[in-house]
């Protein structure tokens, strides 16, 4: 009880500070009965002083190879003989039949160097999606308070070299369990309650329940659709009181091109729950990257120890304050300098890679939320969605 009162008091203090600071509150409320909430007015626009350059995005350059044509372009490289201007189908069908056809990622198309025709498209374009001639999406929607979403231009913070620069194009997307834009204000320690954004249970298809104590859905395809194939959400969900607060999500569907066997995206997580509530699992905010595919239904972003992206993650290596568990004397993280997370903690840029089946349609939900209560926010940076040729169970690594 004392801890909770302390959290509430600190929140009031921070709220007072922030209302003087920069943002007017305009929460659009989560409404699980009506689906996507009222679109925010312009939460996705950057306000970091940068104006979008007037020049159009560079056109695709035929003949270039994909971003990570890592290994199997052994001989002909003929997968990109076409113009590659399609939205989502790999165009090397014209080579005829399947003889010799190999997975080769399509040439990336970036367009987040300018504002889109439809303002809300900025959130997807910041991640490398929905660009003309690039990777198309369908069913795109979002839920949560309008302030939970923010598109940032350029590097976040003041660390040198820049720690959190966009990994694709000029911008990345921020999802937060509070006011996302406060991540850009040094030392703000974001902790906000977004009234009405507390769904309690996770919206379908998200399901925190593990499918098995020992198997995932690759091990046993019969488990598909019965819960979280990764078995990574349930332990933290139970410890956190099985209630989600300040829930914010982005969801979309995307068609996997011919021959393509994987996708990847980049992410980083930062949280004010550290250090005061580090290792206190009841307040362990979560990020979930949920995928529905022919071979997987569940979270795809977790560490090798089976922890979701949270304060429990092995990836939480930037600690900008001491804690009594693994840094009792001094802890500094210059990587967080100039961000709202000074004095707190975060991960480096990570990459999640997930196997998919060529030509299937997959559904994706990126969700972040508070656990325990709505206080002490957690933010996730998202960027650089791209296709690949990997196989195997979902994996996340430090870049
Ligand atoms: Ca980007
Ligand atoms: Ca919050
Ligand atoms: Ca929290």
Keywords:
399 residues; 3 helices; 21% strand; 13 strands; eight-stranded antiparallel β-sheet; mainly beta; binds calcium ion; five-stranded antiparallel β-sheet
> Which series of helices and strands comes N to C?
HHEEEHEEEEEEEEEE
Rg result: 21 Å
Helix content: under 10%
Could you list the spans in which at least 5 consecutive residues all have pLDDT below 50?
1-5, 9-98
Bound molecules: calcium ion
Query: How many strands, which pairing sense, and closed or not: the largest β-sheet?
Result: 8 strands, antiparallel
The global form is globular
Helix and strand content put the structural class at mainly beta
Beta-strand content bin: 15-25%
Distance between the termini: 40 Å
Number of E strands: 13
Number of helices: 3
Mean pLDDT: 82
What this model shows, in words?
With 399 residues, this protein is mainly β. It has three helices and 13 strands; from the N terminus they run H-H-E-E-E-H-E-E-E-E-E-E-E-E-E-E. It has helices spanning 2-21, 121-125, 234-239, and strands at residues 138-143, 149-153, 171-176, 244-255, 262-271, 286-292, 297-299, 318-319, 345-346, 350-355, 361-371, 378-388, 395-398. Strands 2, 3, 5, 8, 9, 10, 12 and 13 form an eight-stranded antiparallel β-sheet that branches. It has a five-stranded antiparallel β-sheet with strand order 1-4-11-6-7, with no helix packed on it. Strand 6 and strand 7 form a beta hairpin. It is globular. Residues 1-5 and 9-98 have low confidence and may be disordered. Residues 112, 126, 128, 166, 168-169, 171-172, 383 line the site of one calcium ion. One calcium ion binds at residues 177-178, 192-193, 246, 370, 374-375, 377.
